[in-house]
Amino acid sequence: MKYTEEHEWLRPEDDGVVVGITEHAAEQLGELVFVELPEVGSIVTKDGNCVVIESVKAASEILAPLDGEIVEVNDALVESPGRINEDPMGDGWFFKIKPSDPSQMDEHLDETAYQKMIS
What is the set of domains in the chain, with CATH numbers? Predict the structure, then answer.
């Protein structure tokens, strides 16, 4: 698993990478009340806006951590955005991306580096 400096996690799975936000990010945001996910089939660019989330505290945009195609989204979040708060590292995932350049994963933090960043 890898992490971004924007508090996203990236978990390689089959031929894609599942993306969500970390527990730290979910705690900082507070109760999430709205999620807008990308369309399946859309092409995203690393660091481009990809997901919109709103909490009781603020609205935030989640950036695409890799270049690629969105191959799956977690539609359950649209009806129940609170899943992100309940299980940010599991059921609260946002989307699965098929990277066009898998080597971009190497640019992200490992768990030790991420923990050091947030401490």
Answer: 2-101 (2.40.50.100)
